[in-house]
């Protein structure tokens, strides 16, 4: 059964997609079977992996179709050399959970208050029903395919809205990896994320969230970074988790590899960032086994 790992930070541009993509390649090189799920309507991961050639494609099966119950996740899997991937869809921007009433339904029922009332009561019942609730739908969809993979890595979009909440509760046990850059805006966002996770943990007793830890990326050795490392390490401790000992250094291989739709390992097999990824991968595997 796969470990489900959600890569989460509501701050944009802190290395989520980069880590998802390169960790997937590395785990695959270590013989693990990987599924990537792009859960970000920006479609960055789908594009970075080369799985999707153009944005705004509404037809190719995506997480949008899965979440809206149109298809099963099995039918949205794109097979690639190193891993499989389920693509995102820009329409996930408007994802706000299943609405109680759609615009069309409301228009139809406008002159009939009794039918409108019945419709809304029915929708409320559906919402509280595990069979039809979105959270359980996602969890159920992932459960269909979990036996085929060692790891399912989910690239979650940068905000604290309903998609992030779903991402945090994607499986009966969701492992959360929090990438951060050693800078002020990143600091603020992890605070807020810690709050959200705490609230979820207090409310959802049927699902478990393991916070794997905070991974520092785009690290440069200087006094400012040092200050933030101390901060993140303390924050991790307060959250009951760790800051990974390995930090991913700043490297031009990252923007280069994104531009060429390759992993950093396709670009070079020898660079400080490559060694650090290997070290991080070891720590990651140890940590996930410890917590599960
Ligand atoms: N180790 C690194 N060295 C240099 N640049 C990096 C590194 N990691 C990430 N970056 C750069 O930082 C930017 C943001 O990275 P990435 O897209 O992975 O962040 P993200 O958190 O997924 O962003 P978003 O929230 O928009 O989805 C990218 O332009 C990437 O090139
Ligand atoms: Mg991203």
Core attributes:
single chain; 292 residues; alpha/beta; Rossmann fold; seven-stranded mixed β-sheet; 12 helices; 46% helix; binds magnesium ion
Q: What does it look like?
A:
With 292 residues, the chain is of the alpha/beta class. It has a single domain (3-291), classed as Rossmann fold (3-Layer(aba) Sandwich), CATH 3.40.50.300. Helices cover 46% and strands 14% of the residues. The chain contains 12 helices and 7 strands. The chain has helices at residues 16-29, 44-48, 63-67, 103-109, 113-127, 134-145, 162-168, 184-203, 223-238, 253-260, 264-267, 272-291, and strands spanning 3-7, 34-39, 77-79, 84-86, 151-156, 173-180, 208-216. A 7-stranded mixed sheet has the order 3-4-2-5-1-6-7, with helices on both faces. Strand 6, helix 8 and strand 7 (208-216) form a beta-alpha-beta unit. Helix 8 packs parallel to helix 9. The longest helix has 20 residues, at 184-203. The structure holds adenosine-5'-triphosphate and magnesium ion. The site of magnesium ion has 5 residues, from helix 1.
How do the helices and strands line up, and which of them pair or pack?
Blueprint: E1 3-7, H1 16-29, E2 34-39, H2 44-48, H3 63-67, E3 77-79, E4 84-86, H4 103-109, H5 113-127, H6 134-145, E5 151-156, H7 162-168, E6 173-180, H8 184-203, E7 208-216, H9 223-238, H10 253-260, H11 264-267, H12 272-291
Parallel strand pairs: 1-5, 1-6, 2-4, 2-5, 6-7
Antiparallel strand pairs: 3-4
């Amino acid at each position: 059964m796969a470990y489900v790992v959600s890569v989460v930070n509501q701050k944009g541009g802190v290395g989520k997609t980069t880590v998802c993509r390169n960790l997937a390649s590395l785990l695959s090189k270590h013989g693990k079977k990987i599924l990537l799920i792009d859960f970000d309507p920006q479609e960055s991961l789908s594009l970075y992996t080369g799985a999707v050639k153009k944005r705004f494609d509404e037809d190719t099966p995506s997480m949008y179709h899965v979440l809206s119950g149109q298809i099963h996740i099995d039918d949205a899997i794109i097979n690639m050399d190193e891993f499989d991937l389920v693509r995102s869809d820009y329409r996930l921007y408007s994802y706000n959970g299943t609405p109680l009433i759609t615009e069309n339904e409301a228009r139809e029922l406008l002159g009939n208050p009794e039918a409108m009332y019945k419709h809304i009561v029915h929708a409320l019942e559906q919402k509280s029903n595990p069979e039809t609730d979105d959270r359980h739908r996602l969890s159920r969809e992932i459960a269909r395919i979990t036996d085929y993979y060692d790891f399912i890595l989910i690239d979650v979009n940068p905000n604290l809205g309903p998609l992030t909440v779903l991402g945090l509760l994607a499986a009966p046990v969701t492992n959360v990896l929090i990438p951060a850059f050693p800078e002020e805006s990143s600091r603020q966002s992890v605070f807020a994320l810690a709050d959200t996770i705490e609230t979820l943990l207090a409310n959802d007793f049927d699902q478990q969230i393991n916070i794997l830890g905070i991974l520092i990326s785009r690290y440069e050795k200087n006094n400012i970074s040092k200050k933030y490392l101390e901060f993140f390490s303390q924050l991790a401790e307060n959250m009951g988790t760790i800051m990974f000992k390995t930090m991913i250094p700043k490297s031009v291989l990252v923007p280069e590899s994104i531009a060429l739709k390759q992993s950093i390992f396709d670009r070079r097999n020898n660079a400080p960032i490559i060694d650090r990824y290997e070290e991080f991968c070891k720590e990651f595997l140890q940590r996930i086994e410890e917590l599960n």
